[in-house]
Amino acid sequence: MAFVKISEQPSLYDGLERKSVREILTDINREDHKVADAVERAIPQIDRLVTAIVERMRRGGRIFYMGAGTSGRLGVLDASEIPPTFGMESGWIVGLIAGGDYALRHAVENAEDDTEQGWKDLLEHKVNDKDTVIGIAASGTTPYVLGALRDARAHGCLTAAITSNPDAPISEAADIAIEMIVGPEYVTGSSRMKSGTGQKLICNMISTAVMIKMGRVKGNKMVNMQLTNAKLVDRGTRMVMEELGLTDYDAARRLLLLHGSVKLACDAYRSEL
Predict the structure, then answer these.
(1) Which residues have a catalytic role annotated?
(2) Is the Cβ–Cβ distance between 12 and 185 less than 8 Å?
(3) For residues 20 and 56, what is the distance between their CA atoms, to the nearest angstrom?
(4) Which SS3 state, helix, strand or coil, does residue 31 take?
């Protein structure tokens, strides 16, 4: 029986070019409401994945997101936001996209069709059996992702798949399948829409939950964030004041900048008491 891609089925809407702007926007928003519900149904699988990742990461394991096109860009986006948000070195969560960094801004012809390149890209990062490889593909059939998952699993990596189609080939290739069934796209086959939105939500959930469990958040504060601009320095200063009960803004700011993060500043202050 042929594999049917729900993500490629005809849109529930037609005659889009004859609709008013308000109608188009309302229709898209109506479809977007379905995304959060689809992600909610996948929480048990996301829970399994995060729990397994944390155990591996505590032993030095890393996370690799892998995808092509929109899926690859979303993986790279999530990985790139981990260092500034949580103060983790960039090598802990890595985003790989078919066609390399050039593909972040440009379509690379046939890049996603190579079943061997994904594993080659992982080998450049010295992937090992403590690592987790997460393949992202709305279709569930992307050769670049599929080949990487199969090889990674064969070499002892924990593998997961994020797809918009049930019983997809990448689901079968992964230890944990996260199937987020959002239905046909508003523009038929345009998986940058609902599928992409759902992928972003799931990546947010995975990386944020992992970082919290790895001790990179205290209470609800980003106590390890990088102080890369004035806004973040101000936020960090106020966090230091709140955490330590200080009333002198300038003194708290100097303490923060001296130590480089809210956590280090608070730890240093308390050690001197």
Answers:
(1) 81, 112
(2) no
(3) 51
(4) helix
